[in-house]
Amino acid sequence: MSTPGGADRLRVGIVGCGSIARAHALSYTGHPRVDLVGVVDIDQPRAEAFAETHGSTAFASRQELTDAGVDLVSVATPPGSHTEVAASLLEAGCSVLLEKPPATALADMDVLAAADAASAGSLYVVFQHRHGSGARRASRLLQTGALGTPQVAVCETLWYRPDSYFLPEWRGTWSGEGGGPTLGHAIHQLDLLLHLMGPWETVTARAARIARPVEFEDVSLGLVTFASGAVGTVTTSLLSPRELSRIRVDTTSGTLEVDHVYGYRDADWSWTPVPDPDAAARLGRDPGLPAGGGTDGPGTPLTDRDAWAASADQDRPSNHRAQIEQLVDDLLAGREHQTTLASTRPTMELVTALYASALERQTVARTDLTEDHPYYSRLDGGRPAETVTARLGTHP
Ligand SMILES: NC(=O)c1ccc[n+]([C@@H]2O[C@H](COP(=O)([O-])OP(=O)(O)OC[C@H]3O[C@@H](n4cnc5c(N)ncnc54)[C@H](O)[C@@H]3O)[C@@H](O)[C@H]2O)c1
């Protein structure tokens, strides 16, 4: 069944009834124009309990769900199953909202892109941090140049996961997770970074396994160059007790920053304009601006200092509800939703390049990541485990 532009109501389903599926179910059941038709999980008792909690029906298979007639299906299964599950739903003609990471390799991204192109439905990806009001403002103002030209970026995902987090047998392994925290955790900030900064060109990275019982990294650090000429750093860690998710963009007009952990509100964003030349002179600082100028480039007036504050609108936290409400509205209006699979490919390419650069100890360009690149099919490049261990170090 294809997406019904102009229809009154949307019929939706959920495949995978674990932790994050609850956020999908609550967003759908809280929407006045959505019917949660049914749910599916390979663990049938789990699907039944989930269906009862959310006033829906547990189906025994995806086929039964699609036969019941659904326009949109959320896929909230583990990353390694995303390609098979999402491709089969697209083949049945449904639109799909696929949890992050969309896939665990660029090769699978291309399988999904082909399934998307052949389907009556469309494939969208959950990156809820693009959809809070702060990111919407930031993206719009950066695109129009109202916040100046980005020059330097800092992107940090500094989280804490103790050894016990890796007790479930699928966690901490390439086969179970397809990658480490650069793929599984940092991908949210990396996606938002690219959403704000535009296309990236090269990455030079190092990764290390310092403390956790995992097959991949627990820390990664990268230097990124952007097509615009800007540069940035990205740091990912699971060893950071004071948790922080931060993106900072220094532009010719000021510093834009968001500082949160698992989701932001408007209050987590700040804009610090370049110092006023007169005030800076009184404080004995050199703002690096021409005397009496107060401009951030030819023809850019000082009133740009107010662009951030002036753009404030309704505060929308960056949660699943923000994206799902937008998606439902887009589909019912027959509009394309912004977070398409294609729009997330640069993010997966950046993740791929971070692994390739760290394990091969060389700079990787986005244009290097063709189908014959060793990291196109696997984020460990198909390297023997002992060489990955040698490159990353060993946990005690
Ligand atoms: N966007 C976010 O902020 C966010 C947060 C957490 C997790 N996630 C993502 O959501 C996905 C699920 O994560 P989770 O923490 O909910 O995992 P989970 O292990 O809690 O739940 C996964 C569920 O999928 C079921 N399942 C597995 N394979 C299946 C299949 N082939 N068909 C049907 N059901 C299947 C499992 O039985 C389980 O109930 C992952 O991709 C994860 O990265 C996203």
TrEMBL record:
GO terms for molecular function: nucleotide binding. PANTHER family: D-GLUCOSIDE 3-DEHYDROGENASE, UDP-N-ACETYL-2-AMINO-2-DEOXY-D-GLUCURONATE OXIDASE. It comes from the Bacteria. InterPro entries: Gfo/Idh/MocA-like_OxRdtase_N (IPR000683), Gfo/Idh/MocA_Oxidoreductase (IPR052515), GFO_IDH_MocA-like_dom (IPR055170), NAD(P)-bd_dom_sf (IPR036291). The lineage of its organism: Bacteria, Bacillati, Actinomycetota, Actinomycetes, Propionibacteriales. Residues 10-115 form the Gfo/Idh/MocA-like oxidoreductase N-terminal domain. Residues 136-257 form the GFO/IDH/MocA-like oxidoreductase domain. It comes from Auraticoccus monumenti. Residues 276-319, 375-396 are annotated as: Disordered. This is Predicted dehydrogenase. Coiled coil: none annotated. Pfam families: GFO_IDH_MocA (PF01408), GFO_IDH_MocA_C3 (PF22725). Residues 303-318 have a biased composition (Basic and acidic residues).
